[in-house]
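Forwarding these from the shared drive since the link keeps breaking.
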Amino acid sequence: MMNRVQANNGLATYMLFGTPLDFPHHHPSFDFQEDVLPVAVEALTNIIQTNHSNK
């Protein structure tokens, strides 16, 4: 999807909000540490507000 956005002169980015994992994805004991979610929401909110206010 990012390639298509960029091919049409749009801006796209890939963001990853890391967290320690005791087990890999798709493992029955996988548990995402939700403590990172407020950081991710704040970062995404700031990006939207910054880019929206520039137009």
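-- next protein --
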Amino acid sequence: MNVERPARVRATIRVPADKSISHRALMFNAIADGEATVTGILDSEDIRSTARCLEGLGVRVDWPEGADTARVVGSGLHGLREPEDVLDCGNSGTTIRLLLGLLAGQPFLSILTGDASLRGRPMGRVIHPLRAMGASIQGRRDDTLAPVAIRGGGLRGLEYASPVASAQVKSAILLAGLFADGPSTVVEPAATRNHTELLLRAMGARVETEATRVTVTPPARLNAVSLSVPGDISSAAPWLVLGACHPDAEVTLEAVNINPTRTGLLDILRAMGADLALTNPRDAGGEPVADLVIKSSRLRAATVEGALVPRAIDELPLVAILGCFAEGTTSVRDASELRVKETDRARAVVEILGAMGANIEERGDGFAVHGPAKLRGAAIDAHGDHRMGMLAGIAGALADGTTVVTNDAVAVSYRRFWDDLARATGGVAVG
């Protein structure tokens, strides 16, 4: 894709549905009693991977190609059946890790795999606590990588102090805890997104939260819950950054999920002096939602670290672009989790923006950007990582000359990204 900087940016955008909630809406309703309709579901490769895996487990998922509504016929807590083939999770870490938690409670054999990228991402962080609960699990390379074979059942409750702040690890243990012989508790080093807790409560499970400690008590049943999925703040993030950094911009993003466990980027933008407003706040299926308005801003540097990191983990690479247009040095620390995503995102963002003229340096647990910098167009390989593809597109729309983005993989989470970029820039940016 060829990208150039437009003279102005004006747009009202309805970003794709929240990816985390879309995964959970399908998966949790699959083990509930009754039927559920999920409207506004994200139609992306990752969510389709979850749907196909559930179908492989005997769940009926009615979701026509291109539709934004899916119907799930729940099988109940104990109604899944042994898959006849390997479950292919594609590129989706959420699919494989949450399914491992769910399958830990099922008394049959399942084998889960994914594409080359997913097969290189860490699975031991989920395998080890699930094995401690009583599931039989084996993975490649000393039980740290996919493919993973699991035979579940006979689980015991546990209290687990997670060494990483990961909503996927927490969610896998909570899902396994639904099938245990007593309560299961996860204690995190920092709070992570809480969509699992909110939806399980809505379905009738007893889930108790105290600071970074979450406990689930096994229910007799879960009740199917229909819901409307709000917009994904991770998909809103590129437009927030484009609007703040472009010299003549105003972008409105409609119906975005502003769950406080996910809004780290909003706090970062405010700390950097961005002209950001939240309007029309409301509730959608138990999640807080608002419209976001971002305008051209004079930015100052900031340091992102500690408890803020897990609240903005998917958006942190975009902070590097903010740093390119801010006065001073913007640092991201405590973010070693960036290195175990679809690609090593700490290294990739330094490589991409460095090639475009940014004064950016890689650090062990993040990166630092010395601003302001004048970006220039370059040939960019996004390494098959959808977040890096969108980052390169936004950086190209802020740079002199032409940026050529290849291997962007944006369809994993945002099929319309390039179309929306063209529309936001009057057809100028994308060619």
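The chain has a mean pLDDT of 96. The longest strand covers residues 275-284.

- D.
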